[in-house]
Specification:
Pfam families: Glyco_transf_90 (PF05686). The chain crosses the membrane at residues 35-56. Residues 1-30, 93-116 are annotated as: Disordered. InterPro entries: CAP10, O-Glucosyltr/Glycosyltrsf_90. Among the domains are: 121-239 and 437-486, no CATH class; 251-363 and 367-416, 3-Layer(aba) Sandwich (Rossmann fold); 488-535 and 623-638. The protein is built from 20 helices and 13 strands. The chain has helices spanning 9-29, 31-37, 40-43, 125-130, 140-144, 173-187, 253-266, 286-292, 311-316, 344-349, 384-397, 399-416, 419-436, 452-456, 461-469, 489-530, 533-549, 566-570, 576-584, 604-637; strands spanning 152-157, 160-165, 195-199, 223-225, 228-229, 235-236, 273-280, 304-308, 330-335, 354-358, 362-363, 377-379, 448-450. The strands form three sheets. A six-stranded mixed beta sheet has the order 6-4-3-1-2-13. Strands 8-7-9-10-12 form a five-stranded parallel beta sheet. The longest helix is centred in the C-terminal third of the chain and has 42 residues, at 489-530. The chain is elongated and about 120 Å long. The structure holds 2-acetamido-2-deoxy-beta-D-glucopyranose (NAG) (6 copies). Residues 110, 112, 114-115 line the site of one 2-acetamido-2-deoxy-beta-D-glucopyranose (NAG).
Length: 638
């Protein structure tokens, strides 16, 4: 593949230069962004291919085909739109294979008529994300406040999508996000309401809730982005990688899933390496650098195996080490955030391995549906090495439970975050959002319509392949899943509390595990310190001295008694172990220090208390033992 494409090398180089110049101009002006630029997502920005950077100037209005549904109420099966892409517009790049061999589109979301009618529970967060505008709605004025933060504006009007771009984001995130929206309209044609939304394609949330408290702020700017956190009001939307991450050769989600499922079959759980695996770029966040300290070394084995992914080498070698499907070889896989949330999450989760989730600060649209100990194992951010070591120890001593957590996490990702549900999430989010709009959406000056053809036809290389692979060929045969009801304040509190409790539970186990280690250390500390021979002699000295003080008689040497001294005892013993031990324990010269001082005697209740304390600790441990066996008996009976 690489060789076949080599003729485009010059083209790519040109682009490389252009793009890195562009990046460096930005970086010098913004220190904060400089770090952002260093993110994993960015490492490859220098490899951005020519394909889509300039697609805006290549709109081909003649490719618009077929009548479109124009109202939002029609539910009749809509007319199937025929596209030139990828078949007939492949003049420029015909050498890349656009569709799968048999001509069918394997990546079309599967229609499954037995799909449960209610959406997965993480859809309920849509209401929470839109809550800040529930009273005020989104007026034109409120919307335009988001303009300065946005990379682009999406307008959906009469079933068509238009875009107006403001700034260029990292790599081609915007392209694949827009592609996803165009495909959504293909999947549910004529069913999306008119709307205008503003999208910020950078990593970190920007709408701080603290800035929008009180009466003087009628409504925060509604900014759509890929992730948010508890201190922000950004609205989360599925990220571009569901349609592919061309710069890193990460295929569209539906296709990645198939590959990872194959990879899963290659190594059965029993045969997987019983350590925690991570592979990634540590330079994007301090917490990742911190993680690397947990790698196995001569001094310490934290039960981890960590590797740095060097994307530049990966690129040169055709991504052979970063293939996701080849990374399902360990029983435990670590998920850790990068500059913000990390796209790697879903691929890690899909491996059937137990995910060790280093406490995240950001959330994307899917993570909020996951529960500790059901879908993943929570890891402390502070003290992560100890936490990881314990997690792996727990997993290796509770193999069935660990395996179940791994499988349940994967099932969640495969089934509840399937492409169908990704489209459903987008659909419902946009629908609920549109209900809040207090103005009639308009197409602003300079906006362009985007379609499958207008985006796909000019695309080249992997960009084009991924578009072809993630293209929706025909509308869904089923309606979107039904939105669940919003959380009541009490339900929401309970959900959060339950998660916090489960995380706390794991932390308690961890503390107990390390307590066991401390007891061991304290025990040997006691012996090593207080059972030195010096103290044994001191003890003998003091007890004999105290005993001697009690003598109410004259001490006499009885008949037949013999004086003993080292010579008389040792000299007759000729060699052997006995002689050896005598030699080894012979005192050669008197102590030059006095004996230690005896502490004062126990007071009456002091001794009683000491013994009672010992007893009660013993009772407590006995209780734990009984509880443990009752549990075991119960689970045996079931
Ligand atoms: C593209 O390739 C297909 C099959 O490989 C071929 O049938 C078609 O004619 C080619 N199109 C052009 C414009 O070269
Ligand atoms: C459809 O969904 C059901 C339940 O969700 C599942 O058991 C079944 O395997 C799915 N069928 C197909 C063809 O995907
Ligand atoms: C972690 O340790 C393994 C095993 O010694 C080694 O192969 C790997 O390169 C180390 N990773 C890093 C990032 O140093
Ligand atoms: C969480 O733990 C607290 C204290 O142990 C308990 O009172 C509460 O009911 C738990 N909440 C949930 C939702 O499990
Ligand atoms: C171990 O020893 C230290 C210091 O003597 C003490 O503070 C700690 O409580 C002991 N740990 C346990 C588990 O008894
Ligand atoms: C568990 O079951 C065994 C045999 O069935 C019984 O002897 C034992 O007392 C039980 N232990 C507890 C703690 O219930």
């Amino acid at each position: 593949m690489a060789q076949r494409k080599s003729t485009k090398g010059n083209n790519r180089d040109t682009q490389t230069n252009t793009h890195s110049n562009h990046a460096s101009i930005k970086t010098s002006s913004h220190q904060g962004k400089r770090i952002a630029k260093a993110t994993l997502l960015l490492v490859l920005s220098i490899f951005v291919s020519a394909g889509l950077l300039s697609f805006l100037c290549c709109f081909d209005y003649t490719t618009l085909t077929g009548p479109r549904q124009v109202t939002t109420t029609i539910t009749k099966p809509p007319i199937i739109t025929l596209h030139r892409f990828p078949r007939q517009c492949g003049v420029v790049q015909n050498q890349t294979q656009p569709v799968s061999e048999d001509g069918t589109n394997k990546n079309k979301p599967r229609s499954n008529h037995s799909r449960p009618p209610t959406c997965p529970s993480y859809f309920r967060w849509i209401y929470e994300d839109l809550r800040p505008w529930r009273e005020t709605g989104v007026t034109r004025e409120i919307l335009e406040k988001a303009r300065s933060k946005a990379h682009f504006r999406v307008i959906i009007l009469d079933g068509r999508v238009y875009v107006k771009k403001y700034r260029r984001p990292i790599e081609t995130r915007d392209t694949f996000t827009l592609w996803g929206i165009v495909q959504l309209l293909q999947w549910y044609p004529g069913r999306l309401p008119d709307l205008e939304l503003l999208f910020d394609a950078d990593d970190r949330p920007t709408v701080r809730s603290i800035d929008y408290r009180g009466q003087q702020h009628p409504g925060p700017p509604p900014v759509f982005r890929y992730c948010s956190n508890d201190a922000s009001l950004d609205i989360v939307f599925p990220d571009w990688s569901f349609w592919g991450w061309a710069e890193l050769n990460i295929k569209p989600w539906a296709k990645s899933l198939v590959a990872i499922e194959e990879g899963n079959k290659m190594t059965q759980w029993e045969d997987r390496v019983p350590y925690a695996y991570w592979r990634g770029n540590p330079n994007v966040a301090r917490t990742r650098k911190d993680l690397l300290r947990c790698n196995v070394s001569d001094q310490e084995d934290w039960n981890t195996r960590l590797y740095i992914n060097d994307w530049a080498t990966e690129f040169k070698e055709g991504f052979k080490n970063s293939n996701l499907e080849n990374q399902c070889t360990h029983r435990y896989k670590i998920y850790i955030e990068g500059w913000a949330w990390s796209v790697s999450e879903k691929y890690i989760m899909a491996c059937d391995s137990m995910t060790l989730n280093v406490r995240p600060t950001y959330y994307d649209f899917l993570i909020r549906g996951m529960v500790p100990l059901q879908h993943y194992w929570p890891i402390r951010d502070l003290g992560k090495c100890r936490s990881l070591k314990h997690a792996v120890h727990w997993g290796n001593t509770h193999v069935d439970q660990a395996r179940k957590i791994g499988e349940e996490g994967s099932r969640y990702i495969r089934e509840e975050v399937s492409m169908e549900y990704v489209y459903d999430y987008m659909f419902h989010l946009m629908n609920e959002y549109a209900k809040l709009l207090k103005f009639k959406p308009e197409i602003p000056l300079g906006a362009k319509e985007i379609t499958t053809d207008s985006m796909g036809c000019p695309a080249k290389g992997r960009w084009r392949d991924f578009m072809a692979e993630s293209m929706v060929m025909s509308p869904s045969e089923v309606s979107p899943c039904e939105m669940p009801l919003p959380y009541s304040p009490m339900e929401l509190r309970e959900v959060l509390e339950r998660k916090a409790n489960l995380t706390r539970q794991v932390e308690v186990w961890e503390d107990q595990y390390y307590q066991a280690k401390t007891i061991g250390r304290n025990g040997s500390g006691y012996v090593l310190k207080y059972l030195q021979m010096k103290y044994v002699y001191d003890y003998m000295f003091h007890i004999l001295q105290s005993y001697g003080k009690l003598m109410k008689m004259n001490v006499e040497v009885p008949e037949g008694a013999k004086e003993v001294c080292p010579e008389t005892m040792a000299c007759p013993v000729k060699g052997g172990r006995m002689r050896q031990y005598m030699d080894d324990s012979l005192i050669l010269s008197p102590s030059n220090k006095g004996s230690c001082e005896t502490p004062p005697p126990f007071e009456d209740d002091e001794l009683k208390k000491f013994l009672e304390k010992k007893k009660s600790v013993e009772k407590e441990v006995e209780k734990w033992t009984n509880e443990y066996w009752e549990e075991q008996n119960k689970s045996l009976q079931h």
